[in-house]
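Support case: user asked for a sample of complex input and structure output to validate their parser. Sending the pair below.
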Amino acid sequence: SYELTQPPSVSVSPGQTARIACFGDALPKQFAYWYQQKPGQAPVLVIYKDSERPSGIPERFSGSSSGTTVTLTISGVQAEDEADYYCQSADTSGTYVVFGGGTKLTVL
Amino acid sequence: EVQLVESGGGLVQPGGSLRLSCAASGFTFSNYWMTWVRQAPGKGLEWVANIREDGSEKYYVDSVKGRFTISRENAKKSLYLQMNSLRADDTAVYYCARDQRFSGYEYFDYWGQGTLVTVSS
């Protein structure tokens, strides 16, 4: 079955830039999406179609894509950004949804 | 305001059944695909199933095929997940989500708060 691979954890200091990568063979053909999940809460969409930002999401969140890798970038990280982040896409047929394993962002 | 409210979770024995419901409001339910996503305790998100606007297409993750059935009642603005032959590894918080599925892309823009399903003897 198709998989998306993320690093388990990323750590940054406040004000620095955090980059979270997601790898998948189908990513050149399928869009990627990113969700933020804080403890005890439902996920929140922060990036859609690789790099689009939903209304209400701060400008410091951005997304990019290059070949089999998509990246979520958080510029000027704030303490409130500490959360788990999940990438999501689809298999090559576009039929089945898949999530990455998630990355825990720690703000030092 | 879009709202999704899940219900129906609880404790069930292995091999048992449970039916989850999701009540939608704040948008035209019949115009959207809908999805169930689950999250085992301390684990990541796993997509479970989705259903087309009119119920004519349904897709499932391999691990639940033949055991779970997704359905909807547009008149009641409700989404369901019938879960049979439950196993311990089905233990999770189950979220319903509005599914933005179109040609070439699919993502989930609104989520409920989830309902916990525990499978244990």
